[in-house]
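Researcher: I'd like a structural prediction for the single chain below. Treat it as a standalone chain; there are no partners to consider.
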Amino acid sequence: MLLPTYSYKSATDVAQIISFLGAIHWGLEWAKYGGVQGYPRYAIGVFAPIAGWSATLMPIEYALITQFLSFTTLYLIDTRAALKGWTPPWYREYRFILTFIVGVSIVISLIGRGEVSSKVGRTPGAVDRVKALREGSEQKLAEEEEARIAAKKAAAASDDRDKH
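Model: Treating it as a single chain, here is the predicted structure.
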């Protein structure tokens, strides 16, 4: 089944775009476009990739929703930056078109996942894999503990036979 692969690929693509949009602010600051703004502009460049990439650790539905909200919030921040003169005049229009296309793509992806998952079932995310790994290790630990106790009892029983 390719749905989990495509879904993860979609989330990583959106994370890359969000990271790139944050990096634009670093470039504009280094070029001193609109004057030196310092930490506020650098903060945009730092928090954008954090928001985009941290979402890839979530189950895919939550990841896409988080990335949609991150993308929209970054659009609002970019719009304010454009009004302050921190970006070129064409950047606001570019961001509107990009946000619209990415937003529609994410919404279509979420709707498509809902249609497919209702017929197929929920696909596991990173959290599900960690839980499965933890449950498997807990079960293995319990089996090892039982074997150790059984070995101790067997050793104690053999010691008791030697004394009689």
